[in-house]
Design brief:
Oligomer: single chain
Number of domains: 1
Distance between the termini: 60 Å
Strand content: 5-15%
Helix content: 25-40%
Number of helices: 4
Structural class: alpha+beta
Number of strands: 3
Length: 81
C-alpha cells in the first residue's frame, strides 16, 4: 500500500496507481514517461504527482499494442491469383 517517505511524500506502487485501469498499461506508460524509475525485478514506486501524470497519459492514444506494426504491402496467395 501507500508509504510515506522521510520528506512526507506519499508513495504508491504501480498496482496501487492502477485502480480501475490495466496494471500493465500503467507499467508501460511509467516506463516511457519515467524510465529512470523502472528497474527489472524491483518494485516501482510513484509519488502522487507522478501517478497523476501517468494516468493523464492514458487518454492520449496509448495502446497496449506496442509490438504491432502496420503491414500494407503483404499479399497472400489468394491476392496474387
Amino acid at each position: 500500500m501507500a508509504e510515506l517517505t522521510a520528506s512526507g511524500d506519499k508513495k504508491m506502487t504501480v498496482r496501487d496507481a492502477a485502480v480501475g485501469v490495466d496494471e500493465r498499461m500503467i507499467q508501460r506508460i511509467t516506463k516511457r514517461v519515467y524510465p529512470e524509475l523502472v528497474r527489472n525485478g524491483a518494485m516501482t514506486f510513484l509519488n502522487d504527482a507522478q501517478a497523476t501524470a501517468v494516468k493523464s497519459e492514458i487518454g492520449k492514444g496509448w495502446t497496449d499494442l506496442d509490438n504491432i506494426v502496420e503491414v500494407g504491402s503483404v499479399k497472400t496467395a489468394l491476392d496474387i491469383e
